[in-house]
Amino acid sequence: MRDNKAVTCLDILIAIILPPLGVFLKFGCKVEFWICLVLTLLGYIPGIIYAVYTITK
Questions:
Q1: What are the residue boundaries of the structural domains of the chain, listed by start?
Q2: CB neighbour class for 37 (10 Å; exposed up to 12, middle 13-18, buried from 19)
Q3: Of the candidates 2, 4, 15, which has an alpha carbon nearest to the alpha carbon of residue 45?
Q4: Residue 26 to residue 23: CA distance in whole angstroms
Q5: How many whole angstroms from its chain centre is CA 31?
Q6: For residue range 10-51, what is the model confidence (pLDDT) as tens digits?
Q7: 2 by DSSP, 3-state: which?
Q8: Would you say 13 and 52 are in contact if contact means Cβ atoms under 8 Å apart?
Q9: Would you say 40 and 46 are in contact if contact means Cβ atoms under 8 Å apart?
Q10: For helices 4-17 and 44-56, what crossing angle results, to 10°?
Q11: Which residues touch 1 (CB under 8 Å, ≥6 apart)?
């Protein structure tokens, strides 16, 4: 079983590299993913901010 902090760090790293993928791995194809995808298409930085926020909340 993996440590919860290690999983969160890995999720955040994925969210920084490719924000929609990080959100998709955490929530699936729900509304959070679509919001992150739109924000990433509008600008990479807003996508990262939203992805890290949704993963850590």
A1: 4-56
A2: middle
A3: 15
A4: 5
A5: 12
A6: 889 999 999 999 999 999 999 999 999 999 999 999 999 999
A7: coil
A8: no
A9: yes
A10: 160
A11: none
Q: Which residues of 22-33 are buried (b: 16+ CB within 10 A; e: fewer)?
A: bbbebeeeeebb
- Degrees (nearest 5) of the Cα angle 36, 24, 14? 85
pLDDT of the residue at 9: 87
Global confidence as pTM: 0.84
Confidence bin at 7 (pLDDT 50/70/90): confident
How would you classify residue 44: left for phi > 0, otherwise alpha for psi between -120 and 50, otherwise beta? alpha
